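Figure 2 data, in text form.
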Amino acid sequence: MANGKKSFILYCDLIHTVNELPDDKAGELFKHILSYVNDENPVTDDLITKIAFQPIKQQLKRDLKKYEGYIDKQRENGAKGGRPKKTQKTQPFISKPKKADSVNVTDTVNDTVTVNDIKEIVNYLNVRLGTNYKHNSKATADPIKARLNDGYTVDDFKTVIDKKANEWESDAKFSKFLRPSTLFSPKFESYLNQVEATESREEQLDVELLKHLKNVRSESDNSKPSIFGRVSTVPKIGTRKTTD
């Protein structure tokens, strides 16, 4: 954890993994998480705890990276003297009242909504992928504006980000394409409508964990002594046929 950071986030969907664990293993997992976020560098030989902790560890790293980026930005603003003070300009005396400038309310509202939408989309992308794209960067904002002008919603962007992250995040060849210029390109519609054919890394780990738990339970059941005691096997003695 970063210095001075007193809290961290656990996401609600973690319950799907915890519910599959025996109570003692769930307790070990929680203690392992607390030890990790307190920089105790915990080590465990328990395979179940290792598998269950991996997706949690990666999410904690992504959240920490986002937090550190925010702190660095605040520190940079503080070094510049903080937010500049507004200076009030004195209005010169005018003999005749000036006509009010015409304001296009629709354009103003649309611009505000677009900026907020871009911020929300870029923030979601950064949290999901652990990146640090800027919402006011032209290379990042332009493809988002183009797709918003096409009529797509913020939720559509989040869906595409999740789909392509699940597909490419663990692929060394394609993970480099998890960027605004690719995700929000003219192929956006095909990305949005594609059917997810592969499981995410977290889902694969959950499946592996469930398989391991079943094997552990099966081995435990097989190791219980029978009510008839130990059965010993007696080798069969063959008979040799003799001829007169």
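Caption note: The chain has two domains: 9-80, 106-220.
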